[in-house]
Amino acid sequence: MTDEAFHIFQIRTPEGMHHFVSPLPPTTAFSAGMAREAIAGQLLPPWEPGRALTPDVFAPNPAFVQVMHEMIARESPRLPHCKTEAGRIGNGFVYVIDQRTPTPGDAVPPEDIIGAFEAERGVITKESYRPNPKHQILSARGFFCLEPKLFECLREDLISRNRGPS
Question: How many CB atoms sit inside 10 A of residue 36's CB?
C-alpha cells in the first residue's frame, strides 16, 4: 500500500472549500455520500493542490482513527504472523508496525508503532489491544501503511459504513 491508496477530495461546504483525504476511491466514496469515518483527515492551509502532503498541513480525523484501531483490534489476532509472533515471545507484547517504517527489523520510530497486543503463554490476550497515541496517520514518510489484509479489512469496514444501515 502506498500514498496512491489515498484520495484527496475537494468539497465545498458552507464554510468554504475543504480538502479531505480518504482511502476510499471516488466512485465508492460518493456512491451514497461520504461517511464521517471514511475521512482519514483534512488538509489545512497553506496546503494547496500540487504541494507535498506533510504532517504540518494534515489534521487526522478522530472518528477514522477510532475505526482503524477497532478493526486492528478485531482482525490482527486472526492473522497467522500475529499468532506466530505471540507463540515466539510467549509472554510480552505483539506490536502492530506501520509498514512504512524504514527499520522494521530494528528500532522502530514511535510514530510507526500503530499499537500492541499483550501475549500470555504464547497466545494473544483477548481485548488486550492498545493503540499507540504517538502513531501518525501521516508522517514525513507518507500515509500510514497497513499490511494488505488489514488495509482490505479497513476499506471493507469503511465501505459498509458508507452504505449506511441495510
Answer: 12
Q: Taking the model in full, what pTM does it have?
A: 0.91
Domain definitions of the chain by residue range: 3-163
pLDDT per residue, tens digit, the chain (166 aa), is 446 799 999 988 898 999 999 999 888 876 767 889 999 999 999 898 889 999 999 999 999 999 999 999 999 999 999 999 999 999 999 999 999 999 888 899 999 999 999 999 999 999 999 999 999 999 999 999 999 999 999 999 999 887 655 4
Task: Give me the phi and psi of 145, to 5 degrees please.
Answer: -135, 105
3-class SS at 2? coil
The cell for 61 is 480525523
